[in-house]
Amino acid sequence: MVEFGKRTRAKARDYILGTIWRPNVVAGFSSRSRIAAVVLMLLVFLPVRSEAVQQRGQRGAPQPARAAAPIDLTGYWVAVVSEDWRHRMATSARGDYESLPINAEARRVADGWDLDKDNAAGLQCKPFGIGGIIRQPGRLHITWQDDNTLKIDFDAGTQTRLLYFDKAKQPSGERSWQGFSTAQWEGPPAGPRGAPARAQLGNNEGPVAPGGGGRGQRGGPALSSSLNQGGSLKVVTTNFRAGYLRKNGVPYSENASITEYFNRLPQHPNGDNWLLVVTIIEDPTYLTQPFYTSTHFRLEPNGSKWSPTPCRTAPAPSPPK
User: Fold this and answer.
1) Do 164 and 149 contact (CB within 8 A), yes or no?
2) pLDDT (tens digit per residue) in 12-58
3) What torsion do the CA atoms of 274, 156, 291, 26 make, to the nearest 10 degrees?
4) What is the CB neighbour count within 10 angstroms for residue 290?
5) How far apart are CA 214 and CA 96, in angstroms?
6) Cα dist. 225→51, 206, 266 in Å?
7) By C-alpha distance, which of 152, 149, 144, 180 is closest to 166?
8) Distance (Å, rounded) from C-alpha 163 to C-alpha 177?
9) Cα separations in angstroms, 283 against 103, 223, 242, 254, 292
10) Cross-strand pairs, 149
11) Choosing a second label site near 287 at 20 to 30 A (CA), which of 12, 54, 55, 249?
12) Residue 302 CA to chain centroid, in angstroms?
């Protein structure tokens, strides 16, 4: 990755916040381009604070990740599905891979998907692996397993992920559905803040912040202000099994590179608290370009609605006769 100096990053930040997020400019961008802009903001802006944290850490013993957290991700979070509804809430028909940047080999695999064969082979969890679990409708429960390990439980598929801040830890053993995840805190840019962002619905002042992933981009809370005010958790996952990007057999391989950014957004005026997860999947086996999604979750007051379910995929609709 290209290394940016502080001045270069500041100029890039000012350009993106001052140009890309202008209302008259954002309207001309495709939804995928807007997500790409979000990712660029994350990659360019956040290292500024990371350097400062590293410099502070040189003066004494490094803080445990829990104590150093710039944002609180713990709690019960429910997925708010305001985009890609038919792909996330239901099982799409075989061969439906709309808006996915897949190659001919991926289309061949997806066209041959057979749910009954997966079930018979004990592969019911392929849609609930690291490449697809965040897009499943349901709930997350985020807790600290210890001072340097975050734990994320998913009620969909009854899956668990451990995010390790300890750089000495290395993957061991066989590949698993959720793989091995390393995590690090990253923070907001230094210098002046950009114009406050707004969601695409509701408040009509300030530049538009992107919502969801895929084609939707509807609703969801403001994003760019969170990059200015809070922080982010960067997660890189390896050592995972091949799985499905969508329930209908669209594949990702074990050679994929999966990076996520977890952002707790500023509290909405109505009191809601939001979590936004930006996911970047690069897969030389099945994708022609990086696949970006952004997924929203709303904080719940407690775990009264927590309801774990096994890995189970509803049958796809039958093709018309």
Assistant:
1) yes
2) 344 334 433 333 333 333 444 445 555 555 554 454 444 444 444 45
3) -30
4) 16
5) 14
6) 21, 10, 7
7) 149
8) 14
9) 10, 27, 11, 9, 12
10) 146, 164
11) 12
12) 23
Q: What's the gap between Cα 300 and its chain centre? A: 19
Which tokens hold the place of 313? 């995929």
Structure tokens at 189: 């840019």
* Amino acid identity at 107: R
Entry field: residues in the chain: 321
At 89-121, the pLDDT tens digits run 999 999 999 999 999 999 999 999 999 999 999
Query: Which amino acid is it at 221?
Result: P
Which residues, other chains included, contact 228 with Cβ-Cβ below 8 Å and sequence gap of 6+? Answer: 188, 189, 193, 194
pTM for the full model? 0.75
Q: Name the residue type at position 278.
A: V
| Torsion 200-221-18-263 (CA) sign | negative
Q: Which of 96, 75, 74 is nearest to 87 (CA)?
A: 96
Structure tokens given for 18: 């001052």
CB–CB of 228/88 below 8 Å?
no
Question: Token pair for residue 142?
Answer: 């985020």
Cite the beta strand spans of the chain per DSSP E: 75-79, 139-146, 149-154, 159-164, 180-186, 232-238, 243-244, 251-252, 257-264, 274-282, 291-300
| CB burial readout 64-76, b (16+ within 10 A) else e | ebeebbbbebbbb
CA distance 157 to 138: 10
Q: What is the DSSP string of 192-208?
A: S--PPPB-SSS--SSPB
Q: 220 Cβ partners below 8 Å, 6+ apart?
A: 80, 82, 199, 200, 209, 210, 211, 212, 274, 276, 294, 296
How far apart, in Å, are the Cα atoms of 230 and each of 68, 95, 188?
A: 13, 41, 6
CA 99, 295, 255, 116 torsion-angle sign: negative
